[in-house]
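Q: Here's a chain of 425 amino acids. Please give me its 3D structure as tokens.
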Amino acid sequence: MVQLSLAHAAKIDEIFSRWQSDESPGCAIGVYRDGEMAYARGYGMANLEHGIPITPDSIFHVASISKQFTAHCLALLEEDGKLSLDNDIRDYFPEIPDYGQKITVRQLMHHTSGLRDQWVLLRLSGWRPDDVITDVDVLDICLRQSELNFAPGSRHLYSNTGYTLMGLIVSRITGQSLREFARERIFEPLGMTSSHFHDDHNEIVPGRTHGYEPLENDAGGDGWRISNPIFDTTGATSLHTTVEDLLRWDRYLASWLANPSNEELTRPAILNDGEKTSYACGLTYGEIGEMETIGHSGSDAGYRAHYLRVPERGTAVAILCNASTMSPGELAEQVLAIVLEMELNEAKGANGEAPDLSQEALDRLTGVYRSARTGMYQEVTLADDQLRLPMIFDMKLVPVADNRFRIDGPRRMTVTFESVDGSPR
């Protein structure tokens, strides 16, 4: 059995020590090496009301980590000869408007379809965070779009809509829900007994954590309030799982990714102009140090999660959190740096240091902006001396340069503030 040294384990525990409290939510961590569990531990509380601690068996909503499982369901259907990823999505959704250009299932999978994101559309149309959202609701709002963000295949832009439609494709082909198909073809064969696509927000799930966000009140008191996702939509999100179960997935995924016959699926998408993206089959490709990484983040309500694999070293880490204030992507990189005994190259400004922006500079950047890429509008707010994107799960913006910020959340994207004439904001 592969186990971390006591010294490495102590360093990891130190990173998470601030959440090792019976008054705080926290996270579960799993470190996987060569298909074995090298380290697993829980920090903080799964349920603050009943004083239940987090363990490696605690079940978390992992949000967009779900996407690699949805993509794999479609890969299995293609393997079965029941689907071609190059089919027009209107073969499965004839009710979707004809935009004059073919949108393929593969483009849904790679976020190159041009379809507008469901969460942005729902918020713009007046849906509230506590409204129950179903697959039918997402499909309905998709049907009412008269245009795409861009021509299919011409750009890469993350769209949850595509993955919700992918889950519905599974249902329309098989007659099974995504939950049933994934259970039958993925979770049961791999022994992932604590995993399922959660399609009923009222369902009781033994061992599940609560999600939490900071309690804010006029008196300035601290504490936490429950923040669980209120939706019954799957495909883009809603996988419930544990770090123990993700070990089984990591073991399988490593073998699947290494199989040459899957190269076409696992190769990052190429745009119409030949530009290479960093996304394929529900997985984001990046790097840590000089080594390639494969993984994905997730963020919904009070849950934050990150799965990150370094194929070259046969090592991966999963960090599942139940507090909206946590940054598992950064934590995953810190853990891998310890395990792989390397130093991280943190994002720096032009002078080699991360910029320390004044209150005046931060205030100047708040407001409502229009994306030059999509035409969509986004509000930028300031709370606790940190810029935030409230319409994207209240993500924090971490300064990289005076007018450029990294989104602290899924996909680790950057945001650049520019004036209408293209000059720095």
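Q: Can you summarize the key feature?
A: Residues 345-352 have pLDDT under 50 and may be disordered.
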